[in-house]
Amino acid sequence: MWHEIATWQETLKERPDLAAKTVALYTQDVRRFATWVQHEHPGLKVTEVTPTDAKAYRDYLLAKRYAPTTINRALISLMLFFDTIESTNPFRHLTMIDVIEPAPVALSKTEWNAVRRYAEAAARRDHGLALALATLFRYAGPRVSEVAALQIPDVQVSARRGLLIIRRGKGLKHREIPLVQEAREPLDAYFTHREHLAERWRERAAVRVEVLAAWSRWPDGHLFLGQRGPLAERGIREIIAKLGQAAKLASPLGPHDLRHTFAKALLDPAAYGLDRPPMPLPAIQQLLGHADIATTTIYTRISADDLARMMGTSESL
């Protein structure tokens, strides 16, 4: 079998649609199977492998606790390999492992409170930038690309009302998201600093006898600014990640985790101590800017923590 594998590998390398890493993984999968066959059935020829052998190998991988996605990839690799062998493909009709996608990662109420606490503490140094970003993701659920593109007029805040306007969302879709008080107050505080930044950039341009950059202006410039200009996606991710590190979260924190938390709180308010009914999926779909409601339904999946809470066993877990 080893000769056939080597020949197949060379064939894969000639395919322009396969990356070198993909070829290496496919070959690794088939070599692992060959080692298993050599141990279980010494002397078995590649043309003598049967569907029963294929099923036994799948069960072996399951017993070894390989991840379902790894097992399915191995079965696909072996199916492709045996397509090149002049015999019936024993892996062609083998049932794959049914992979259940996990629920999106969302922060618990306690975790979010920790993140917010550190964002509030950082406000003395960053003039409320981290807090404004974190609360915007948490209570409005925009994508990081949408936040990086925001202009000052896209966020309208008053004492009683607020509105986030996404003018060029995914698929160039326009949508409007009401801003609750938890998001309005940090944004309002950041606006004061943003106006001061506009004055600073105006003075710098005057001293250097340069044209004032449009993104720096007030009240029609770019909303979130860094030290050298508009805050890009990378800079936003770094700010949110540092909040997660400060809060000592179990896994790295990203803007999308806060977007997930926004959606989960709408669908399962009780998990965040809120006494209100769950929001209908079509409404959540509209707020998140999903083109297909099937994408929104991922938030209906129940995590292990959710089950423990619902069963009243979360403290013991």
Give a quick precis of the structure.
With 317 residues, the protein is mainly alpha-helical. The protein has helices at 2-13, 20-40, 51-63, 68-82, 109-126, 129-140, 144-148, 181-207, 233-246, 255-267, 281-288, 293-296, 304-310; strands at residues 155-157, 162-166, 175-178. The protein has two domains: 2-82, DNA polymerase, domain 1 (Orthogonal Bundle), CATH 1.10.150; 109-310, hpI Integrase, Chain A (Orthogonal Bundle).
What does this structure look like?
It is a single chain. About 55% of the residues lie in helices and about 5% in strands. It is mostly helical. It folds into two domains: about 1-80, DNA polymerase, domain 1 (Orthogonal Bundle); about 110-310, hpI Integrase, Chain A, CATH 1.10.443.10. Strands 1-2-3 form a three-stranded antiparallel beta sheet, with helices on one face. A hairpin with a 4-residue loop joins strand 1 and strand 2.
Strand percentage, roughly?
under 5%
N-end to C-end Cα span: 49 Å
- Number of separate helices: 13
In which order are the strands of the major sheet placed?
1-2-3
Q: Taking Cα atoms only, what radius of gyration do you get, to the nearest Å?
A: 27 Å
Number of strands: 3
Report the biggest beta sheet as strand number plus sense, adding barrel if it closes: 3 strands, antiparallel
The 3D shape can be described as: elongated
CATH architecture of the largest domain: Orthogonal Bundle
* Number of separate domains: 2
Give the class from helix and strand content and strand pairing.
mainly alpha
**What is the top-level CATH class of the largest domain?**
Mainly Alpha
Mean pLDDT: 91
CATH-wise, what's the superfamily of the largest domain? Intergrase catalytic core
- Poorly predicted runs are none
